[in-house]
Amino acid sequence: MATKPNGTTTTNPTTTTTTTNPTVKKQTYNPKSQMYNPNRIPYRPNRGRNHRGRGCNCRRYFCRCCCWTILVIFVILVLAAIAIAIFYFLYHPQLPSFSISSLKISHFHLTTSSDDATRLTTKFNVTLSTKNKNKKLVYTYDPIALTAKSSNQIELANGNFPKFTSTPNNVTIIHSTLSIVSQVLDVDSLTSLKSDMKTKSGLPMKILLDTKVVVQMDKLKSNKVGIRITCDGINGQIPKGKNPTLASITSPKCKVDLRIKILRWTF
Fold first, then answer.
1. Which of 107, 109, 171, 216 would disulfide-bridge 138, Cβ 3.0–4.6 Å?
2. Quick check: 130 and 171 in contact, CB under 8 A?
3. 125: nearest Cα among 159, 92, 96
């Protein structure tokens, strides 16, 4: 640029000036922006559809297994019901009946030793009968365990009866001697027993029979099934001397309960 004396200015023809808009920013390439950044989250493709597809397949397979399991159980129950119905129609099975005929108290004595221990000594004679009311079923009993108990579940005497077979429409007489020798009673049992002995109608008691039985139908034979026979409604007067007393029986029929509800039949 040259300055003339008159104060005017001139521009160099070879020199050009450019003006830029201050509001427009110039974009430049920065190679550092493409460098590795450890805090940057890498791109991962969306695989949600595949996972959802596998989950649906697993649930579908599980539902099918449940449906087939329920169907198989239902078919087994239906077949079992049909078999039971056929068996009942052919054989008309009935539980054996038990009844108590008599209970004689020969000895009933409480003794207290020097160490303040009270002991019980008893002897009972019991007679029962059982009847097989079926026409085609045979009952084979294991040895029977008999127990006499008070109304408060205090054991008064025990005994047993040998095994036997009950044929159709047969009546078997069970006669057994129950006894107990010098059984020590605790304070609560002694107090309860003395209270029952003061009852006017006599000492309330019951007879329990526990055994197992096998049921046979022609060539078909069951596994052993546990049963319990309960004979209650018995009141016995305590003998005061050597003469035995005969207990009064208000309900001679006994209750029969199966200890195992499901029978597994074997050929």
1. 216
2. yes
3. 159
Rounded to two decimals, the pTM is 0.67
Report the first-to-last Cα separation within the chain, whole angstroms.
129
Alpha-helix runs per DSSP H in the chain: 48-91, 187-197
Q: How far apart are CA 58 and CA 213, in angstroms?
A: 50
Please give the Cα distance from 39 to 112 (Å, whole number).
92
How would you label 140-158 residue by residue, b for 16+ Cβ within 10 Å and e otherwise? bbbebebbbbbbeebbbbb
Beta bridge partners of 110: 120
What is the length of the chain? Answer: 267
Token pair 């509800």 is found at: 261
Cα separation, 221 vs 114, in Å, equals: 57
Distances (CA, A) of 51 to 54, 55, 115: 5, 6, 80
Cα 252 from Cα 100, distance rounded (Å): 5
Which residue matches tokens 């029969």? 256
The residue type of 161 is F
Angstrom CA distances, 3 to 7, 8, 188, stand at: 7, 7, 137
Digits of tens for pLDDT over the chain (267 positions)? 444 444 444 444 444 444 445 554 555 555 555 555 555 555 555 555 555 555 567 777 788 888 889 989 999 999 888 877 877 777 777 889 999 999 999 999 998 887 888 899 999 999 999 999 988 899 999 999 999 999 889 999 999 999 999 999 999 999 999 999 988 998 888 899 988 888 888 899 999 999 999 998 878 888 888 999 999 999 998 988 788 899 999 988 999 998 765 545 433
Give the closest residue to 246 by CA, choosing from 100, 147, 129, 144: 100
Show the CA angle centred on residue 159, arms to residues 158 and 161, nearest 5°: 150
